[in-house]
Design brief:
By secondary structure, this protein is α/β, with parallel strands linked by helices. Helix content is 45%, strand content 10%. It has helices at 15-18, 25-32, 46-60, 73-83, 91-104, 113-122, and strands at 8-11, 35-38, 64-67, 136-137. Strands 3-1-2-4 form a 4-stranded mixed beta sheet, sandwiched between helices. The chain is globular, with a radius of gyration of 14 Å.
């Protein structure tokens, strides 16, 4: 990622998934990148935290990498929100954009419309609103 000028990483891993690594993933990311944010997509106000990280990258004119454990579901949701799903861009259009671009570059991204709808209406992909837990910004 460094060879491609990546300075920002937005992790969509849940609290439990960070523990799967045989090293301190959070510390590694903080050491390697100038901006590291982790936003668990199924709790708190993930949508707002995700939008904040993407907005900061846009304002800095820097690319940002989104990642999760599988690379398909949560990344697709995050990319759809970054495109503007729920803020003037129809959910179906955001889904088409994400999946179409992924196909062009030879990868797979899927956007579950039900989860995307939950994310943009309740703030997280589980659909359960609640107290803002906040993203972990470093």
């Amino acid at each position: 990622m460094h060879d491609n000028g990546i300075k920002r990483v937005l992790s969509l891993l849940g609290d439990d998934e960070v523990k799967w690594y045989g090293f301190d993933l959070e510390q590694r990311m903080r050491d390697e990148f100038s901006s590291y944010t982790r936003v668990p997509m199924f709790q708190g106000d993930a949508k707002t935290a995700l939008e904040s990280a993407v907005t900061a990258a846009r304002e800095a004119k820097e690319p940002i990498v989104l990642h999760c454990s599988g690379g398909g579901g949560r990344c697709g949701l995050g990319l759809a929100v970054a495109i503007g799903a729920g803020k003037g861009v129809a959910l179906e259009k955001a889904k088409e954009e994400v999946e179409g671009h992924a196909n062009v570059v030879g990868t797979k991204r899927k956007v579950d419309l039900k989860k995307l709808d939950k994310l943009v209406t309740s703030g997280n992909a589980s659909g359960e609103g609640g107290t803002y837990l906040g993203a972990q910004y470093y």
